[in-house]
Design a protein that fits this description.
The protein is mainly α. Helix 1 packs across helix 2 and helix 2 packs across helix 3.
């Protein structure tokens, strides 16, 4: 047996602001330098990936990704400083919650 955890952030109305899916999009943008390539890697449409990021930005009041238009290696996307900070904090929160849950699980179930 093992314990699983899932963390996401909601607003006061229960609308999802940020979670694993948006985290994975930001990580892929950071790694690939392109929202389009990130969407392709995740087997989703560019429009869907862009919509998820834009929704998070609106609900947070922050810009997470900045894009530069252009072809031939001129265009691309990157995380803003706020996007990087959110990604780092969310990863830390997720890891700490998982470690706490694992510790309590082991105390309760693996005596």
């Amino acid at each position: 047996m093992e314990v699983r955890t899932k963390v996401w952030i909601e607003d006061e109305n229960g609308n999802s602001i940020f979670g694993d899916g948006r985290m994975q999009i930001l990580e892929a943008v950071d790694r690939l330098g392109s929202l389009n390539k990130a969407a392709q890697e995740m087997n989703m449409s560019y429009r869907s990936a862009w919509g998820k990021i834009k929704t998070a930005e609106e609900r947070l009041g922050l810009h997470l990704v900045e894009s530069k238009l252009g072809g031939g290696g001129v265009g691309g996307s990157r995380l803003t400083p706020q996007g990087r900070e959110l990604l780092d904090r969310f990863n830390k929160l997720s890891q700490e919650i998982h470690e706490l849950a694992l510790s309590h699980f082991n105390e309760l179930f693996n005596r």
